Amino acid sequence: MSPKKKEKDPDWGTADAALSRTLAKVVRGERMVAIFSSGPGQAVGDEGAARLAEALWERQGDELTQGIISLRLQGNEVGDAGTRCLAEALAEGQLRQLRTLDLSGNKITAAGCKELAKALKKGKCLQQLDLSGNSIGDQGAQSIAQALPSHHDIAELDLSGNAIGAAGAQALRAEMANHKGFQKIALSRNPLGDAGAAHLAKIFGKRCGLTCVSLISVNLGDAGATALAKGMLEQPGLRELWLGSNRVEDAGALSLAQAMEEHGGLRVLSLERNKITDKGVMDCVGVVVRLCKEELRGLQEITVNMSGNSTRRFSESTLNNLAVAARTARLISKRCIKLEAMLKFWKEYTGVGKIDEDGHTTADVVKNVIIPETEAYGACYAEFYHCFLPEFYVVHSWQALFGDLLRALATHASGFTLPNLDPFHEQYTRRPEALTVRYFVDVFCVDQVRKFPEGDPRCETDKFDFIMHEMKRQDVKVLVAMDRDYVPLTRIWCLAEVYYAKQFDMPLLISFGPIRPMPRRRKALTINDMATSLDVDKTLLVEELTLRGPGTGEKFEDTVVTPFQKQATATYKEIYSNMPSEQQYECDWYKAQDDAREDMKRYAAEGKADKLREAVEAGIESRVEESTMAPHRTRLSQLELILAVDAEEVPLMTDIAEMQRTLKAARDEKLDDPDLIRRGQEKLDILLAEARRQEAQTALLAATRQGVSLVKQWEGDERRIRQGVAQPLQEVAKTIVANRGRNPKEMTEKELKEEEKQKERTQEENNIIRTLRLAVEEGSDAGCDAEPLQKGWKTFAELKVFSAVKARLLRLAEEEAAIAAAEAARIEALCAAEMQAKREARAANAAAKAAERAARIESGEDVSSEEEDDDSDDDDMPEKKVVEDEEQEGREAEQEDHADVENGTVDSLVDALRRGRETGARDEIRDFGKNWLRKLDHDAFLDSIRAEVAYFVSQRSAADLIRIIGQAVEAGLDDKTKLKASAAPGGGYALSERPGVRRFLPCVGAEQPAEIEPGEGDLPAEPTGEAAKGGELPEEAGEPGDSTAEHVLEDEPSDAERQAEADIAALVHARTRHACLVMCDAIEARDLEKLLEAVPEAERLNVDASETTLGWRMIRELELEVAVKQQDTKSMRKCLEIAREVHVDDEVVREAARSLARLEIKQGMDTSNAKLLGRALDEGEAAGMTEKQLYQGKNKYVQLEVSRASTSESIPDLRRVIELAADVGMPASNKELGVVHYRLMLLELREAIEGSSIGVLKKCIDAAKAETERPLDDLKKAEFRLCVLELEDAVREGFDGERLTAAMWDAKALGVPKEMFVQGKVKLAELSSRAFTDWVTEEIQEAVQSCEAEAPPGPLRKIIDEAKQADVDPEDIKPAERKLCFLELFEVLSSQQIDKVEDLLAKSAAFDFNKSNLSSERVRLKEVQDHLARLEHLKKARECEDTLRLAMMTNDIVTLNLAIDEAQMLELDPELIKAAKEKLADFS
Questions:
Q1: pLDDT of amino acid 1
Q2: In sequence order, what DSSP letters do the residues of 1345-1404 get, joined into one string?
Q3: Cβ contacts of residue 899 below 8 Å, gap of 6+?
């Protein structure tokens, strides 16, 4: 049967229960006493410590007990009193066997510690003392230090968390330096600082036995850490050093790590949560790697904790114990692989196709071969061969070809410049030692499968610097495997390894595989040109080099990159000099290819076309691959095209040839730059157009020169004709025509030569005209200069005039010759008919004779003797010989161009004159043509004159227009007699009254057509249809038989009249146009005199108003200029006003206004006329005068205005004056300006007081306060008004309690009437009860102070009621209630109500007026008391009198007797008393 469960004591976890159990143990004689606090409120405190001490005292009397060996009271809130009791108890014998004393986590101070130290001095066996978590301070530490020497066996001392500083540490050092028993000391969480750590460091020595020191969170820095590091070397037995949660940095960590390495025995170094960076951590890792020089298992005993520091390279797991990372680095440094194994690896996997000899990089081999082969085994590839202790650390790039890596290693091991990668090749038979060389190659010697993250202690890829440092101790050399492209020069990993090789003084070798010259792009590289496969690697390496190396700037390039490049170059040169010539040639060829590639790349980037062309040619010569050549050829075509497009000052034809070549090259290379090709094509088009233009202009100039020469020749001929020296043109034409009809055989040799010469001359003239026409047309199309074109067209027109006249004369001669020839042909035809009749008669006669002869023959007559008649007729005309020269006619037909050979019509001459007019041919040439036109066809001549009038009306040449008007007048176009002659003999209509004439009169001021062709539009349209056949007329003409219609038809003007009217209208319009042009020329010439004549004339001739307006505007402008020159202000102002009215140019008006302003400013300054000066300044500023020009005038004007404004009552006027003064920079110290400022301030202040704007009033008040002489009365009014406005505004807003409170207090301070606070108090009570309470409190205090002794109590009583409602502190209300009572006492003096007086006296008793220090209160109380006594006396007297009278009336002798006594005592009316006595006597 199971025992019964013990019921749980409800007080089991309390402090009393724990203390009771402990006391029971003490009583039982147990030697280990402990009381642990289980939580808040569970501590035994000083009382429990006292009871425990008492129990120890009682136990001390028991001789059988041996004393306690352990006493633990941690966390029990034991103070100095409890400590004193325990110390006394322990001092009396309990310390004999005490080994452990733990009073940690209590409330012991230096006083309690002093008592405890006294007790400890009496003991000798203490081994462990724990006083951590108290407050003993430096004094307590000194007390403990003094007590320790007696305890030779003490091993552990914990004084953590006791506010011990450097002084306490110094005291401990003095007493503990020679104490061999000490093993562990803990002073954590004390403000020791570097000074305290320095004191503690001096404890270390041969006589000190410390093995563990804990200085966590003691404000330790680098100086203290360095001191501890130095002292640690004097303490060979030290095994643990805890320095966490301090401020140790890299320097301090390095000192401790170096000391740890030199010490050799330290096994725990804790530096967690300090300020150590990656540099300090890496230094410590290096130290840990070096600590165990023999066996790896030694690393397992070391713990270096650096967690919680600001490092990025290592993870927290690594920082928790750096020994794991060190063990990883040391394991890797032992691995290696022989060349033979690597060559077999190559042979095996290339044979099965897993490795491409010329395509796979090292990274590809790792991914495709090494990782799959080692993944199942969990080990690196080198571990399969059990090869250790490498001879060479190989630096190489994973981005290079794997075959190049093996070639470099084989070259290094065998010495062959062309090694074979077959391990069974005869090369290795001759040099078998090459296969046994051991290399550390990371792809084989680092685990490629288990990829721990960087920073992990087991990661094998981030510890190359530790590995190299360890290998340096093994005399391992560094070998750089340089591939054909020198990739290691571009990889940060490789350069970092080279740097650490130099840093660790490891021999650096370079081997090539295959041997190639250094590519130029690998020279002069910087850190920015280098890369890694992973960005995280680059970040890691850059941080490494920055923290522990020379950085990544110029220093790194100077110390690592440049020397490495130089060593690679030197090694190559050395190998090159010993190579066979075939290999040297191959290297030279590679170098040439590389130079070509780099030159192409460089010059393509720089945009140097000439250099790039040389590089491209070099690339072609060295057979650079097409994939490289193609883009550079395209780039070359692009650069050459750019140069060609941007080329300037290049001969035109050269530029065209170059543009054509470069465009063709760009298109051949398929340049993908459409914009550039478009620009090139555009430039080529421009160049071709320019070439065409130049060529056309050259031909034009030449043709023009020939044409001018021909014109001059014809002009000379004309002059000679006029002089009578040469034959007239008509005769020449007749001669030419006559010669054409003559038979060449009938002409003399001279006449033939003259004829031939004339033909050649004519042909040459036609060719010149044709050539000039073609040249001018080509020049127009090609865009030649305007001047040569104009001259060409002009010369062509002049030639056409001459040729048209000659052609017309020649045609007239031909027509005359044709008429003569026709007459001769008629006569010849008549002769021919007569001859034909004769022939027919002779033929008939002959036929008859023949018939007769035949008949005779038939009849047998002999007719042989008869001679036949001759049928020939001697009178017959000989046959005309036709001379045909087809070849000559064909040649002439080819040369002739119908566009250039005149047809001899009048229209061609008219057209030539029109062309000459439009192209500006000389007047004498056109006059020559017009004179001949007049002779040849007068009507055509008149039409030409009309056309010229219309043309020159549309032009802008007044001289040409007046000239042609003169010619028109001379030709009779303005002859009005034609109109009169055609009028009815009996009178008829005037010119303006005749039907149909008015519409031909000129329209005054109307715009005339630009060109009026003669006869065009002047005549009414011819009737059509039935009207043309004499049928019905239009309705306007009236019905047949209508006399009115007949009259209109009879008076309708003839065609001649219409033409005459049109001519007159055209001449009127021409004269109007001429007047306008004369006026415009005068405007352009700015000639005032001519304008004064031309403008009125133009108005008289009805020139358009807009034109005459311009004329008058120019007149006013010129008059204004004259007035400005005369410097007459009145005239200038008048002219200015007129100029503005007619809208003269603004700039002219402004300039004149400026001149006028300058004159008036001077006058105003001289006469001190402010009004004149102000107007002049305004006008000058409006006219654009500069501040510099207006400066003196403004100053004078401001001085005058300031003097005037000192008495001004206008605020705007004062402000304006002040602004003017500020603009001119008048000093503020000017007295008159100061008066104006003061005046403005005063007026603005008064205006603001009358207004209701708070902001304006504040601003004015501030301005008034800033004045030296303040307007005190106005300022007080303003401040008062401001407070009132702010109070009203705050009450009106009703939502900002703070503002309302401040406004009320401010208003109160200025004495604003109380009635103005009524609404504010209501609103304040709603918004802020606290503020309202404060306000009422202040009111009640003021009321108490302001109340007079005899004031009515009502107002104060009301205030007190408000205070109570506002929850004012009763203590603040009490003085008011006392004052109220005082006032009520005065009020009650006039009261006759005894109850009221008694109540008030009872109320006043609470205020002890009779004990008051104020005599007024005592007197007032006495007065009320006296008043009450009087009232009571009067009451008694009235009662007594009433009683007496009643007794007398009722004959109550007893009452009467008593009443008489009382009346006598009250001194009532003696008569009444006498009467009562008499009444009593009567009864007696």
A1: 39
A2: HH--TT--SHHHHHHHHHHHHTT--HHHHHHHHHHHHHHHHHHHTT---HHHHHHHHHHH
A3: 770, 773
Low-confidence ranges of the chain (pLDDT < 70): 1-13, 37-41, 59-67, 92-96, 177-180, 206-207, 292-300, 455, 524-554, 727, 739-743, 860-903, 976-1051, 1484
Q: What is the 3-state secondary structure (H, E, C) of 847-885?
A: HHHHHHHHHHHHHCCCCCCCCCCCCCCCCCCCCCCCCCC
Neighbours of 879 (CB within 10 A): 6
* Residues 6+ away with beta carbon under 8 Å from 473: 290, 293
C-beta separation of 324 from 457 below 8 A: yes
Segment 148-192, tens digit of pLDDT: 777 777 888 999 999 999 988 888 887 776 666 778 899 999 999
Q: Check if the beta carbon of residue 960 is closer than 8 Å to that of residue 917.
A: no
Q: Where are the alpha helices (DSSP H) in 905-1021?
A: 906-919, 923-936, 938-954, 958-970, 977-981
Which residue has 């227009």 as its token pair?
961
pTM of the model as a whole = 0.47
Task: Round to whole Å and give the CA distance between 1233 and 1225.
Answer: 11
Do 500 and 469 contact (CB within 8 A), yes or no? yes
What is the SS3 assignment for 350-390?
HHCCCCCCCCCEHHHHHHHHHHHHHCCCCCCHHHHHCCECC
* Token reading at 1447: 């007794």
- Please report, for residues 683, 1266, 1278, the alpha-carbon distance to residue 1237 in angstroms, rounded to integers and kept in the order given: 73, 11, 18
Max Cα distance, the chain (Å): 260
Distance separating alpha carbons of residues 808 and 907, to the nearest angstrom: 10
76/86 Cα distance (integer angstroms): 13
The stretches of 742-785 forming alpha helices (DSSP H) are: 749-782
Torsion region of 620: left, alpha or beta (phi above 0 gives left; psi -120 to 50 gives alpha): alpha
**Chain-centre distance of CA 712, in angstroms?**
72
Backbone angles phi, psi at 304, to 5 degrees: -125, 110
Contact between 1111 and 1097 under an 8 Å Cβ cutoff? The reply is: no
Give the model confidence (pLDDT) of 1418-1433 as tens digits. 888 888 888 888 888 8
> And the tokens for 451?
């990829």
Q: What's the CA gap between 801 and 824, in Å, rounded?
A: 34
Which residue type does 23 have? L
Contact 190, 160 (CB under 8 A): yes
Angle at 994 (CA atoms; ends 990, 1000), nearest 5 degrees: 105
CA-CA distance, 1261 to 192, in Å (whole number)?
62
Instruction: From residue 593, give the alpha-carbon distance in Å to each of 520, 623, 910.
Output: 11, 7, 80
Phi, psi of 212 (to 5 degrees): -145, 130
Strand, coil or helix: 1239? helix
Q: Exposed/middle/buried for 1255, CB within 10 Å: 0-12, 13-18, 19+?
A: exposed
Instruction: State the Cα–Cα distance between residues 380 and 1073, nearest whole angstrom.
Output: 111
Give ∠ CA 1414-1419-1420 in degrees, rounded to 5: 100
Q: What is the 3-state secondary structure (H, E, C) of 1403-1424?
A: HHHHHCHHHCCCHHHHHHHHHH
For residue 21, the Cα-to-chain-centroid distance in whole angstroms is: 81
Handedness of CA 378, 380, 384, 386 (dihedral sign): negative
Q: Centre a 10 Å sphere on the Cβ of residue 375 and count the other Cβ atoms it contains.
A: 11
Sign, Cα dihedral of 942, 947, 948, 952? positive
Helix then strand count (H, E) for the chain reads 58, 15
Phi, psi of 392 (to 5 degrees): -135, 135
Element (H, E) at 585: helix 581-606
Q: Residue 285 in contact with residue 258, Cβ under 8 Å?
A: no
> At 462, which helix (H) or strand (E)?
none
Residue 371, amino acid: I
